[in-house]
Every structure is written in C-alpha cells, then in structure tokens.
C-alpha cells in the first residue's frame, strides 16, 4: 500500500519533466530532465565573459592560470611560473581571477617579447644569418639542420620527403 501511494504522489511530478538533448527537448512521461552543459562564462555587470584575452591571445578560462598562459607564443612552463611568482598570484582557474588580477597579469605579460614580436625577431635573425652567408645561414637556405646533427640517415623534417634516384643502367654490349 505504501509503495502505491508513493508512486501516485510522484506521478503528477514526473509528467511535467522533460528530457533535453543537444538543443532540442521533448516531453516523455516518467522521465527526468538533464540540462545541456553551457560553455564556461563569467558575469561581470551586464557582460558575460567567455574567454580572457592576454597579450592579444584568447587564453582558455576553464584551466589554471599557469597552463592558460602557455597558450601565448613565447611563454612556456618556466616563464608562466615566474609570472605567477612575480605577481604573487595563486594558481587558480582563469575565470576566477578578479579584474585587478587580470590587469596586473596583462601588464606583466606585456613586459616580455611574445607572439608577433617574437616571431618577427626570430625571422629577422635568420634572414641576417642568410645575408652574411655564414655557415648557419647557408644551412637555413639549404633547408638542412644547422646545429651539428648528422644528415645521412635522419633529419627528414628539414630535408623533406625522400626522392628516389634512378640508378645507372648498365651499358648493353
């Protein structure tokens, strides 16, 4: 008797629930509703923040700051930790940073050569080596390794795909 009364008390509730699946929802009697997950965002006033922009790059806000900073070209593991130590920030999730912490993070990152400036610097350094025709510049022009690696067997990345060379044909008599 107790189970029948419990089932009848749940019946009106279960008919009002629906299943939501990937943008579409449909009602199904006796089913439970599960909301679809929304992308992580943060409310700041009337604006909704989905990504944090640091150094001209959108870094993921669902990861810790140390790992998010690595998405910026020119910032690796050591430099990301160094930035956090200099600012004495906790390594918390990026979306949990306050406005003041974000501003100080942007100022600290702007002190380093990152992204386009770093790529331009490296490109100009290689062009200078090519102009003065030093060993490293010549190796860069030829597309070969310039740091002493052997090239008989490996270095396929720099040399490109193998090209088959036709062997000499024996002269017929």
Automatic annotation (TrEMBL):
A Pfam entry, by short name: Ribosomal_S13
Entry's Gene Ontology molecular function annotations: rRNA binding; structural constituent of ribosome
Transmembrane portions of the chain: none
Matching InterPro entries: Rbsml_uS13_C (IPR027437), Ribosomal_uS13 (IPR001892), Ribosomal_uS13-like_H2TH (IPR010979), Ribosomal_uS13_bac-type (IPR019980), Ribosomal_uS13_CS (IPR018269)
Keyword field: Ribonucleoprotein, Ribosomal protein, RNA-binding, rRNA-binding
GO BP terms: translation
A GO term from the CC aspect: mitochondrion
Family of this protein: Belongs to the universal ribosomal protein uS13 family.
PANTHER family hit by this protein: 30S RIBOSOMAL PROTEIN S13/40S RIBOSOMAL PROTEIN S18, SMALL RIBOSOMAL SUBUNIT PROTEIN US13M
Listed NCBIfam families: uS13_bact
Oligomeric form and interacting partners: Part of the 30S ribosomal subunit.
Protein name: Ribosomal protein S13
Species this chain originates from: Musa troglodytarum (fe'i banana)
